[in-house]
Design a protein that fits this description.
By secondary structure, the protein is of the alpha/beta class. The chain contains twelve helices and ten strands. Helix 1 packs across helix 8 and helix 9 crosses helix 10.
């Protein structure tokens, strides 16, 4: 079974809605908040908007950029936004000093993350645990706030031996003589959580279930287009990520199967998503996966 965990799911939708009427001739304007569309995970959103997949659903989507998720969530709760593209995400690769030849070789090493309790912290925690290492004893985790550039600077300076970076930052690291210890695709074998998602309010779920289905249907069509149109996908990666053509070809192959047109994921994946927010809690927190998702909208979008 292929691992496709760039997943457009409404993991916050807790109730089953009833279908409404199809949109009128005038497209309905929706505001979706995001922190910017410069990551490869944002490609389906861009394609859905720019290639008319939302228009086919009678929607006109405006993406509004926010500096940070707290402001975006506040706008959502104030009904200034219809949806937000917000979820804990693992869109990362691990880079290291060139002499480190595998995950087990990280024992005794220093690894930079952004903050404790973050998705990057969770990724390292799971990766080490599933390779027979104790993340609390066998390595030293150092929190270095800021962009991947700050963590890479620490790697270059020798104060850490490996770090987590947002893909395709590993391409820059390789050009400087460092090693990609695990690619995004390889990371998805160890850490199976949704990378991006679409969230909305209970009010939207109760009052406009048909609109939610149409948004998901537009995104699903964009994912399928991206997966079937290799040259277009490669070209978009060149432009979006500022890669040369050979690098864009390479990363398209890595990213392609991470997109998920099925729109749903197994309970085991939802459990890992929940664990991102609970794995460092002093008291064990148990939440059943069925409590935090409702696949009704996703199933309707596939009809």
């Amino acid at each position: 079974m292929r691992n496709r965990f760039v997943t457009f799911v409404l993991l916050v939708l807790l109730v089953v809605g009833q279908g409404g009427a199809i949109a009128t001739a005038e497209p309905k304007v929706l505001n979706i908040g995001w922190t910017g569309g410069t990551a490869w995970t944002a490609l389906p959103d861009r394609i859905a908007s720019e290639r008319g997949f939302f228009e086919k659903e009678g929607l006109k989507v405006r993406y509004i950029q926010f500096q940070g998720t707290n402001l975006m969530l506040s706008a959502l709760l104030a009904n200034e936004l219809d949806y937000v593209t917000i979820l804990p995400f693992i869109a990362d690769a691990i880079i290291s000093r060139p002499e480190i030849d595998g995950v087990k070789a990280l024992k005794g090493k220093r690894i930079a993350i952004n903050t404790f309790g973050s998705s990057a912290d969770f990724a390292i925690y799971q990766l080490l645990s599933r390779n027979g290492l104790d993340p609390n004893k066998d390595v030293t985790l150092q929190a270095l706030a800021g962009s991947p550039d700050a963590r890479f600077a620490a790697l270059v300076g020798g104060s850490v031996d490996a770090t987590v970076v947002n893909s395709p930052f590993e391409y820059r690291a390789e050009q400087k003589g460092f090693k990609t210890l695990l690619s995004v695709k390889e990371m998805s074998e160890f850490v199976k959580i949704p990378i991006v998602g679409l969230s909305t309010t209970q009010r939207k779920i109760d009052k406009e279930p048909d609109e939610i289905t149409r948004v998901l249907r537009g995104q699903r069509a964009a994912i399928m287009f991206l997966q079937s149109q290799r040259e277009i996908g490669v070209g978009l990666l060149e432009k979006l990520l500022k890669l040369d053509h050979p690098a864009a070809e390479k990363f398209y192959s890595l990213y392609r199967d991470q997109y998920n047109p099925d729109l749903t994921v197994p309970d085991s994946v939802v459990e890992e998503w929940i664990a991102v927010g609970t794995f460092r809690a002093k008291e064990k927190i148990t939440v059943k996966p069925q409590v935090v998702y409702d696949w009704t909208f996703a199933e309707r979008a596939k009809r």
